[in-house]
């Protein structure tokens, strides 16, 4: 018995020593492509940092982020939890066919106040304002949720928010997507919190109806699958390899545009490829649309017969929606409030006198992000 205990002690010691050696000498990455975030920096060793307790907290975060074979161990953990019957890991519900983002009930006043403040600061009385809010997959595909999952009524919350915003057009995408669901086209990615390009096309159709634009049949668009190996943000939290997604692109003869990215403060612009092909070889393939989230982009369609311009104030849900607008607008100003620093959005709108429309497009999951919402005004 003593010999067995001795062997076990030796094995444990060897494992700990080996892990320590691997940790010390292994290459440390600055960025996790799988989790799409920066990893913790080494803790700063100083008397002040030790005294206030930050050194230990920073050390813990550094060790967690750079632990050897971290992704592999996370996969083993997920497999074990699934075998044990778990259907919620962290803030992700695991359904029969897809992963779901758990969304807390948002502070309704956060968006209503910011949106009304933005719209009231616009000087042009003829400019048309719109708000489009998008639910999560849990609202559209509740039948696939685990039976014990408790989720908020997203459609009701969106209706309440829209009722308190003073604008010309209000679109609750819950209603639209529930109608589209019967057509058997996937509306949300299985492994990511975003909607699919097909769902974005449905949103564009609804916007056209509200604006009295011609609605173009789906058959007139060329659909191209640009990747069938996409695993998104929800996959990164559970690392369940049984699911993956297709990313598709829709093209139409009048969707011919150039793009440029702008410096918010200097007003300088440079050419930019909206369809960022380099992301198709990376983990974050959804960033193919718009190259991620940048402060300011302008799309220009010189062939557009309409002499109108629109500002899209958005989160990442709008990224695959924006190209459709080039059919109806000669110029599309794309603003992400999270990164649009140094000036207000209303001042940008007021300085560009040719702007005819402003639309706010947010997923309901973004409404809990105070940085994204408060920066509107």
Structural features, described:
An eight-stranded mixed sheet has the order 7-6-15-13-14-12-10-11, with helices on both faces. A three-stranded antiparallel sheet has the order 3-4-5. A two-stranded antiparallel sheet has the order 1-2. The chain is globular. The chain has two domains: 2-68, no CATH class; 99-374, no CATH class. With 377 residues, it is α/β, with parallel strands linked by helices. It has helices at 2-25, 47-51, 54-66, 70-83, 108-120, 137-140, 154-163, 173-180, 197-211, 233-238, 345-351, 370-374, and strands at residues 31-32, 37-38, 88-89, 92-94, 99-101, 128-134, 169-172, 222-230, 245-251, 258-262, 269-271, 296-300, 309-314, 331-335, 355-363. Helix 5 runs parallel beside helix 7 (154-163) and helix 8 (173-180) packs across helix 9.
Keywords:
single chain; 377 residues; alpha/beta; 2 domains; eight-stranded mixed β-sheet; three-stranded antiparallel β-sheet; 12 helices; 15 strands; 33% helix; globular
Secondary structure elements and their pairing?
Blueprint: H1 2-25, E1 31-32, E2 37-38, H2 47-51, H3 54-66, H4 70-83, E3 88-89, E4 92-94, E5 99-101, H5 108-120, E6 128-134, H6 137-140, H7 154-163, E7 169-172, H8 173-180, H9 197-211, E8 222-230, H10 233-238, E9 245-251, E10 258-262, E11 269-271, E12 296-300, E13 309-314, E14 331-335, H11 345-351, E15 355-363, H12 370-374
Parallel strand pairs: 6-7, 6-15, 13-14, 13-15
Antiparallel strand pairs: 1-2, 3-4, 4-5, 8-9, 10-11, 10-12, 12-14
Helix pairs in contact: 5-7, 8-9
């Amino acid at each position: 018995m003593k010999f067995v205990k001795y062997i076990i002690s030796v094995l444990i010691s060897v494992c700990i020593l080996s892990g320590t050696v691997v940790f010390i000498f292994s290459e440390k990455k600055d960025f996790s492509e799988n989790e799409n975030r920066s990893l913790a920096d080494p803790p700063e060793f100083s008397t002040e940092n030790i005294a206030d307790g930050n050194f230990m907290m920073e050390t813990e975060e550094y060790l967690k982020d750079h632990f050897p074979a971290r992704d592999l161990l996370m996969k083993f953990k997920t497999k074990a939890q699934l075998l044990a019957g778990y259907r919620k890991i962290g803030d992700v519900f695991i359904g029969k066919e897809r992963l779901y983002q758990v969304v807390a009930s948002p502070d309704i006043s956060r968006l209503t106040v910011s949106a009304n403040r933005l719209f009231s600061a616009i000087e042009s009385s003829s400019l048309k304002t719109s708000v489009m809010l998008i639910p999560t997959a849990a609202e559209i595909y509740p039948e696939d949720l685990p039976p014990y999952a408790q989720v908020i009524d997203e459609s009701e919350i969106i209706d309440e928010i829209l009722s308190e915003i003073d604008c010309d057009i209000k679109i609750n995408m819950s209603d639209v997507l529930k109608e589209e669901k019967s057509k058997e086209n996937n509306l949300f990615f299985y492994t990511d919190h975003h909607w699919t390009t097909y769902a974005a096309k449905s949103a564009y159709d609804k916007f056209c109806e509200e604006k009295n634009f011609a609605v173009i049949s789906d058959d007139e668009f060329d659909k191209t699958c640009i990747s069938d190996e996409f695993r998104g943000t929800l996959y990164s939290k559970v690392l369940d390899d049984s699911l993956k997604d297709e990313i598709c692109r829709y093209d139409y003869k009048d969707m011919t545009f150039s793009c440029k990215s702008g410096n918010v403060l200097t007003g300088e612009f440079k050419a930019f490829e909206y369809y960022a092909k380099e992301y198709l070889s990376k983990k974050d393939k959804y960033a193919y649309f718009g190259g991620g989230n940048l402060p300011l982009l302008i799309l220009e369609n010189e062939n557009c017969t309409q002499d109108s311009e629109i500002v899209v104030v958005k989160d990442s849900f709008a990224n695959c929606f924006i190209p459709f607008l080039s059919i109806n607008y000669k110029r599309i100003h794309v603003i992400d409030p999270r990164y649009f620093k140094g000036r207000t959005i209303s001042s940008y709108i007021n300085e560009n006198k040719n702007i005819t429309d402003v639309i706010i497009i947010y997923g309901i999951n973004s409404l809990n992000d105070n940085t994204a919402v408060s920066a509107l005004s």
